[in-house]
Hints:
By secondary structure, this protein is an alpha+beta fold. The protein contains eight helices and 14 strands. It has helices spanning 4-15, 53-63, 71-86, 92-100, 138-146, 184-195, 203-208, 214-220, and strands spanning 18-19, 24-30, 39-44, 104-110, 119-126, 157-164, 168-172, 245-249, 252-260, 269-273, 278-282, 291-293, 309-314, 320-327. Strands 1, 2, 3, 4, 5, 6 and 7 form a seven-stranded mixed sheet that branches. 28% of the residues are buried.
Amino acid sequence: xxxxxxxxxxxxxxxxxxxxxxxxxxxxxxxxDDTCPMEELSMEIPEGREMECLLDVLKDHFRNAKTVGTAxxxxxxxxxxxxxxxxxxxxxxxxxxxxxxxxxxxxxxxPGGKATNWEHVNCYVDDRGISKGLPRNIRACGIANxxxxxxxxxxxxxxxxxxxxxxKFERHDFTLSEVSSSAPWVKRAFELNLxxxxxxxxxxxxxxxxxxxxxxxxxxxxxxxxxxxGPPPGAxxxxxxxPYQWTQDGEDLVVTVPNLPAETGKGDVRCDIKxxxxxxxxxxxxxxxxxxxxxxxxxxxxVIPDESSxxxxxxxxxxxxxxxxxxxxxxxxxxxxxxxxxxxxxx
Length: 347
């Protein structure tokens, strides 16, 4: 039996990276069939295959899953997907190679980086799920939405956690109890996915374990850059007339309540600005609109209450308006004011 030091030396020789001494890890299985319960699974890590072990198991699972349509029909759909993604015509020889491969696609839920100490939480799916005619995984889509990483996930899904800083690679436990919208990692993922581009580096885990795909990936000219995500599904309340407007400029947000009665005074207004919440109420607002922003709603990101303020100003027509000027905790664009029931930004 090798010592811990010998195991690390072996790992460094093989991949030039330090591997974890852990012997097993936990991950979660989310069946596409929502009548089947989610499961917490455990996997032993084969010596020298910490990076590949999960992908190997998932490839077998996806390869044996039930599909819809003939092989030729699936191949035709898959070819169309590849050509749309790459912007190139895929020749038949390359298509034959790609069609025979079973690949696993990681969907980044918690994008890893310095902000997370290189912790990644990924949802792993069959990359050919659509061409195979697999059903939509409602529960996995819901989790992705909660993370601000909206994705149309089809087929069975698996969630796992890794630590990967390009020098050290470790698999860590991800448990069933963490599949919850209130879990700390979900809230952190939401903030990161709205603050910056999705971290496409998670795809490297898949490509490292599939060296025979290097040529195909180059031929398809796969792009790393992903668009900046917009508001998460459900954040903007469409088709509703909101009693306020909001804009942003750099590190400041301005919330405006227009056209209040001329007699509106400071005693009619209650404005409570907290780090993650804003409660705004006006007794002179029309019935049913006196609570303008409910303090129970969570702001998109944190703000600095001590540097924020509100005032009542006069309009040219004699009416009044409330202006709340809020200083952002970080100078970044907000896609929504509150995480749910938000008015769209006034352009």
